[in-house]
Write a structure and sequence with these properties.
The protein is of the alpha/beta class. The protein is built from 23 helices and 18 strands. Helices cover 42% and strands 15% of the residues.
């Protein structure tokens, strides 16, 4: 197609958007900042690691344009590629904080996490989201989803954080790809061979009806650039990641016990008006409401006996167990959950929006206080929900509401401490845990931290499970166990002496001491932007070496 934006590669897309003669690419292919984790697995790297970053002007406005190359590793995010985005957004934030207005524009053509680097991708996506939340206090962050790959996985959560999201009819947007849903939930839940089903559910036209895309444009350079100019000049912002009340009141009116008809959902959505949502209340019961590790640790850290929540799966309570009064949050399994895809501790629509709502309540309660309460997130989440209704309504939007709310609290001065007591998987971890100021983890063989189940990762990467496990010996970021995760520098405290997940008087005391130390460290360093992940000894010496190299190079070139 003549003048097609979709048919351009990432670098051509950047050049098409930026005014002629104004562009300056940052960390270009000649810098040779490739992904060593790919080389270690005998995967051919790319000299720009699939990310193009350029400063320039659009219609007399300073911009930084970031584009993903969908033809390289499916546009997946790994350590180097993620670091390029994070570094560029960090520099843009500094500029805006100094009253030098610059607009970030992100072209999304990505399957999400690069599974060959897995946990580096999850970390990077959480850090990208953190910066988008911070930048939106100054300027709109504009997202483009042209087509080809679309925007999937954790990067669909990123798309939901954008101030204004533009797409062509050739785009698809969803948290879980059709093949992954089929693998995890079965063909009856989602038939990945049914192309009509796919496009009618997650295609851009339906996403526009579902208020997940803000603007649908024709596939031409001129139309897309005009939409970007308009978004900049009008400072468009849908506040999509701050609409928990809207969605919770909508969901309460829908019958989600079976797959929804698309037209019925669209009509209900279009007619809906936001209604007040009741706060979650947790009281003491007569018997445990769940048997999960997360539930047991929530009870221990709040001092509540047999806690019972007014929510099906989201728990929150104040606690005097720490040096400071704190709020403890958790997501727990509920076999009677009316949302049938989240009965085993998954994070779905209600969990994401309810967590976003309760965190926003904490923000409002503390916003005028000189000292903000710590928030302790008990992490034991098996995965995000894999289901048709979840994709139709937009589970990625729900998870973005939770992630954005955690980031907002942290940036406002709340120490957010994530305690990994159980599994920390994929989008669930992005929504509940990865926006923490500090992460603490038990040393249990039963804890997995990863971007996807081994079965789904095998199907997507076309590698056997045995091959994936063998590659983990060379690349710790694709391993599933907590000890390899500790090597990445993501943990503030690794409780290596606690090898069992069950709560004992001794383990409870040790965990509380660790949380108190983490709160104290956040207070002393005033770290509101996740910087500890890159600056701690493990990160500097091994876990985030490539990240820090990219940061240094970006800072040098940006300020040259």
């Amino acid at each position: 197609m003549k003048n097609s934006f979709v048919e351009l590669n990432a670098r051509e897309r950047v050049h098409a958007l930026i005014d002629a003669g104004t562009g300056c690419e940052m960390i270009d292919p000649f810098d040779q900042m490739i992904a060593p984790n790919l080389v270690a697995q005998d995967i051919v790297p790319q000299s720009d690691d699939g990310i193009v970053v350029s400063r320039g002007m659009i219609n007399d406005k300073a911009v930084v344009v970031i584009a993903m190359e969908g033809k390289f590793q499916g546009g997946g995010i790994g350590e180097v590629s993620g670091a390029k985005i994070i570094a560029a957004l960090t520099e843009a934030l500094k500029e805006n904080q100094a009253d030098h207005e610059i607009y970030p524009i992100i072209v999304l053509d990505t399957g999400g996490v690069r599974l060959q680097e897995a946990n580096y991708g999850l970390l990077s996506i959480s850090e990208i989201g953190n910066l988008i939340v911070a930048l939106k206090q100054y300027v709109p962050v504009i997202g483009l989803v042209p087509g080809r790959v679309g925007s999937f996985g954790g990067m669909s959560i990123t798309s939901a954080l954008m101030s204004h999201l533009i797409a062509t009819k050739k785009a698809r947007i969803g948290l879980n790809g059709p093949e992954v849903i089929e693998t995890e939930a079965g063909v009856r839940e989602f038939d990945s061979s049914d192309k009509d089903l796919i496009w009618n559910t997650i295609g851009a036209r339906q996403r526009m009806h579902a208020q997940i895309v803000d603007e649908l444009v024709t596939d031409s350079v001129d139309a897309i650039k005009d939409a970007v100019v308009s978004a900049i000049e009008e400072k468009k912002d849908s506040h999509r990641s701050e609409r928990a009340d809207f969605y919770l009141s909508l969901l309460s009116e829908l019958d989600l016990s079976k797959p929804m008809d698309i037209d019925t959902y669209n009509q209900a959505l279009a007619a809906h008006q936001t209604k007040a949502v009741s706060a979650i209340h947790v009281t003491e019961g007569t018997a445990d409401a769940a048997a999960s590790v997360g539930y047991q640790w929530f009870a221990a850290l709040t001092g509540l006996n047999h806690p019972v929540s007014s929510s099906a799966s989201v728990y929150t309570a104040t606690s005097d167990q720490f040096l400071e009064d704190a709020v403890v949050t958790a997501i727990v399994p509920n076999e009677q959950n009316p949302m049938y895809r989240v009965r085993n501790g998954e994070v779905g629509l209600m969990e994401g929006f309810e967590m976003g709502h309760l965190l926003e309540t904490i923000y409002e309660e503390d916003k005028d206080k000189a000292v903000k309460r710590p928030v302790i997130a008990v992490i034991d989440v098996s995965s995000q929900a894999y289901g048709y209704n979840e994709e139709l309504i937009g589970i990625h939007v729900a998870l973005a509401n939770s992630a954005a709310a955690y980031a907002k609290l942290r940036q406002a001065g709340h120490p957010v401490i994530g305690f990994i007591a159980g599994n920390a998987i994929s989008g669930a971890f992005l929504a509940h845990g990865l926006q923490s100021s500090r992460l603490i983890a038990l040393n249990s063989n039963h804890i997995s931290v990863q971007a996807m189940s081994k079965e789904s990762a095998s199907r997507v990467t076309k590698r056997s499970i045995a091959e994936i496990e063998a590659a983990a010996d060379k690349v710790p970021s694709i391993a599933y166990d907590i000890r390899n995760y500790q090597k990445l520098g993501a943990l503030f405290t690794f409780l290596d002496t606690i090898t069992e997940q069950t709560v004992t008087a001794e383990s409870k005391a040790t965990v509380i001491d660790a949380i108190n130390a983490a709160i104290k460290d956040v207070r002393q360093t005033n770290d509101t932007m996740l910087t500890n992940r890159y600056t701690n000894d493990i990160a500097v010496k091994g876990g985030r070496v490539e990240t820090n190299k990219v940061f240094a190079r970006m800072n040098e070139e940006w300020n040259d």
